[in-house]
Design brief:
The complex is a heterodimer of chains A (about 290) and B (about 200). Chain A contains 8 helices and 2 strands; from the N terminus they run αβααααβααα. With about 290 residues, chain A is an all-alpha fold. Chain A has 2 domains: about 1-135; about 140-288. In chain A, helix 1 (about 5-30) packs across helix 8 (about 260-280), helix 5 runs antiparallel to helix 6 and helix 6 runs antiparallel to helix 7. Chain B is α+β, with helices and mostly antiparallel strands and about 200 residues long. Chain B has helices at about 20-25, 75, 105, 130-135, 140-145, 155-160, 200, and strands spanning about 5-10, 35-45, 45-50, 50-55, 60-65, 85, 90-95, 115, 120-125, 150-155, 180-185, 195. In chain B, strand 8 and strand 9 form a beta hairpin. The longest helix of chain B has 9 residues, at about 20-25. Chain B is globular, with a radius of gyration of 18 Å. The chains are: A mainly alpha (about 290), B alpha+beta (about 200). The interface of A and B includes residues 68 and 214 of A.
């Protein structure tokens, strides 16, 4: 991994975070029975659509830092028929435009919700972006990426960051019966974190067995292995803390247990960055 | 469509790297850029047989550039279509449309495309297309003092030199269909081969 690849770490993570926010918001609005959902639609940091738009804007800017000649970037759509990289760029455009339309529509209405059909369009374009992003890395000559873990880890990052953002924004408060809906999200987040832990360990076992060529990375010792263990430790701590807060809330409802969840969410964000950094470090190709 | 290709004779190559220098000179490449590289492969060791020690130590060289593959994975994945294949099979990079995303360098199993930080774009062996158009040989072919390199139509090269054998450290030819015909060194296929000049070639 070279220094310019850091821009790809941030590009992919921030773009997936953006998609995660929209997918979770759409799920909440379209599939909840009667949730008391507080969605800001104005120019506020608590507006999820605005946040998603800002994230995708920063992600796209970050991706430009990876290019040797950004002035030629408009030509990146030339190979839509054959290249997943071209399709990924198209997907960024579609997702950004649909976000912009949704934001404008919510802001114009001045209400506390976004039109469901527009959020659905955002989610579909966002999921297309997620799929295109994963396909970019499913390259037959790069065995460390060309496997089940790439699409799964991208999807888990999307869900994890999306759910964490909703908890941070206090968007989900309680449903009609007075039951804190936020705890459903905490439970879902715990399940995602556990899946990240499990898939991380399984993928590491797979990497350890791979012949990495004449100058490939070493997975079962050294820096890569230590970083992997550090990420797994962060994930475990985040998971245990979330479970503890869930238990505390059940034992003492209304105790405000969510407040100390925030530092744990910071851990969640950090481990996602470390995970993506590790992903790029695992690069090696078949051949010379 | 014809299929221009390189031939490399691993049994006669002395590893002098004149091909590498000729390529660098012809293409005016900056420090760190080598479109043709010579891999020094060695392996084997000493084994005790009764009261004696017998060695199966071996070494050979492999001169490698872009193989102008039949199914170029670089061109297939290039988002700008900056990489294209000519009628004669030469795979070219149009540096005026390249965005320097380095995706081609990621995917190529031969490490052919290389990023030129001065220009901000990718570059690779173009089989000296300008020389070929004038009816001349690529510079590396003419520079080789051992006549270990040749070029021409792939089928003709195979007829002239025999079926190609893709020796270590080359990947399986089935991945991209490289237009490369190799005469293997007699010791290729020996025990525990490794590239011994890894520092020299690893950034390629």
């Amino acid at each position: 991994m070279r220094s310019r690849d850091w821009s790809l770490v941030f590009f992919t993570t921030l773009a997936q975070w953006s998609v995660g926010i929209i997918v979770c918001l759409t799920g909440l609005i379209l599939f909840s029975d009667d949730p008391a959902v507080i969605v800001e639609t104005g120019l506020s940091a608590r507006n999820p659509v605005l946040l998603a738009l800002l994230l995708i804007a920063v992600a796209t800017t970050s991706s430009f830092l990876h290019l040797g000649k950004p002035s030629n970037a408009p030509g990146a759509l030339n190979n839509l028929a054959g290249s997943w990289l071209s399709r990924e760029i198209l997907a960024i455009g579609l997702f950004s435009v649909s976000l912009l339309l949704t934001l404008f529509s919510g802001w114009k209405s001045g209400g506390m919700e976004y039109p469901g059909y527009l959020l659905l369009v955002c989610s579909i374009t966002g999921l297309f972006l997620l799929w295109a992003m994963a396909r970019v890395y499913l390259i037959p000559t790069i065995p460390a990426w060309n496997n089940w873990y790439t699409p799964l880890s991208f999807a888990l990052t999307t869900l994890c960051l999306g759910l964490a953002t909703f908890l941070l924004l206090d968007t989900v408060v309680e449903d009609g019966s007075g039951k804190p809906l936020a705890w459903f999200y905490v439970g879902f987040l715990i399940a995602v974190l556990l899946l990240e832990l499990l898939s991380g360990f399984l993928h590491q076992q797979q990497l350890n067995k791979m012949p990495t060529g004449m100058d490939g990375p070493v997975f079962n010792r050294g820096t890569l292995h230590r970083l992997f263990l550090a990420r797994m430790a962060l994930l475990s701590i985040a998971c245990l803390a979330m479970i503890a807060s869930l238990l505390q809330a059940n034992l003492a409802p209304g105790s405000g247990a969510l407040t100390w969840v925030y530092p744990v969410l910071a851990l969640v964000f950090i481990q996602e960055i470390v995970g993506r950094f590790l992903f790029y470090l695992s690069y090696f190709r078949i051949g010379v | 469509m014809s299929r221009l290709a390189f031939f490399f004779d691993s049994s006669t190559c002395s590893g002098c790297k004149t091909c590498q220098v000729a390529c660098k000179d012809k293409n005016d490449l900056p420090v760190g850029q080598v479109w043709r590289r010579v891999y020094e492969v060695s392996g084997g060791g000493w084994k005790k047989e009764g009261a004696a020690w017998r060695n199966d130590v071996f070494a050979y060289n492999l001169s490698l550039s872009c193989n102008h593959c039949e199914d170029p994975i670089c061109a297939k994945n290039c988002p700008t279509k900056a990489i294209r294949k000519r009628e004669d099979g030469i795979v070219l990079i149009d540096q005026n449309s390249c965005i320097g995303c380095k995706y081609c360098a990621w995917v190529c199993p031969y490490g052919a495309p290389q990023f030129n930080p001065e220009k901000g774009v990718m570059g690779k062996c173009d089989l000296c297309a300008d020389y070929v158009d004038q009816g001349k040989n690529p510079s590396c072919v003419d520079a080789c003092p051992m006549r270990a390199l040749d070029f021409g139509d792939y089928d003709e090269l195979v007829r002239k030199y025999g079926e190609s054998e893709h020796i270590y450290p080359l990947p399986s030819a089935s991945i991209t269909g490289p237009s490369l015909c190799i005469r293997a060194h007699r010791d290729a296929g020996g025990a525990d081969p490794a590239v011994s000049n890894i520092e020299e070639v690893k950034n390629a």
